[in-house]
Amino acid sequence: MVIKLKQPNTSSAGPAPTIDTPAIVRGVINDIRANGDAAVRQYSEKFDKWSPASFKLSQEEIQEIISSVPKQIIDDIKQVQENVRTFARAQKDSIKEFELEIRPGVHLGQKNVPINSVGAYIPGGRYPLLASAHMTILTAKVAGCPHVTACTPPIAGKIPANTVAAMYLAGADDIYILGGVQAVAAMAIGTVTMKKVNFIAGPGNAFVAEAKRQLFGEEIGIDLPAGPTEILIVADEHADPFIVATDLLSQAEHGPDSPAVLITNSITVGEKTISEVDRLLKILPTADIASVSWDKLGEVNIVSDLDEAYKLADEYAYEHVQILTQNPRDALVKMSNYGALFLGQNTCVSYGDKCIGTNHVLPTRGAARYTGGLWVGKFLRTVTYQEVTNDKESGELGRLCGRSARAENFEGHARSGDARANKYLGDRFEWIG
Asked: How many domains does one find in the chain?
């Protein structure tokens, strides 16, 4: 049985939005498909009030921008990127290429081939999100992708210098100060001034997510569907309500649609966490955003024991799941639906967002039930090859192929097998003569 100390405040949500996001995005994509760079510039002026002579930064401009970034920020970027690089390299090393001989002279193999051209979308707008550069560009480069085009929007009409530094140090081949649907569409479709990519990774607002969804398949591959960030904390009676509240609000500040959920077996922890959230919101500089998320989407659920807590957490299937219990590693066995686990009070979700080295582009809105987050493998195409060097085995496979194909009424397939059975085993077929 679940007791809800705090439920989402649906009354504060207001009327349903009247903006038809799919239609707006479709219109922008179609315009860019038809009019290329002219349409890209039109929408950049409209949405971002941004229309430089060139959206692409030259190497001279990049170096000048980086020179304006404080040394401590550069040093921190390099340290974080080394963490991300180390983990991504370990991931790549875990994906093995192999070849085996399943029968004499019958060779089957697997290779991992990097995607040739990748687009990385680094969101901005409200905040300069340096970490998204590490997670997308750097991971693609570790995978071995030869070319990465990176786009980030201006912030209040200015170039986000810190983000540009992170993009450059991550290894971006081309950097554009361009945001929104127009950036995603330009990368996916290609224009005179922007080379078309094969795959786009990176988070963004509802319009960016919708653009990726609409362009997926025909034009590009994408990393995963993404929505507002989510945090769920499983806490036992030993958890510190101050830590719980602080960590819930760390994600609630992302935006007004960011759910923050606590599941605990302790009503005391639940009640004290609510009190701590209320107190901290009075002094949090981003309270104007975090308070909206907490009011609209914050939840505190009391359950009878931790087994019930883990089961309920799996039903949420949230992006970030933080385990604040005495034995946090139990969650590795008892849970399966999450984007990333953060185990113990020494490990907060913000570490994953900003610096620890695992990727922060993670599944939201229940997508954790069927996919993991962005990782080096997303930038690799695992392809297979086969070779038969033994004549007799080719003939035997030809017989098997012929029988198997005819069971499905695929005569053309069957005859490819027949030809080998005839050539190497002497089998006679009426169609061969």
From this structure: 2
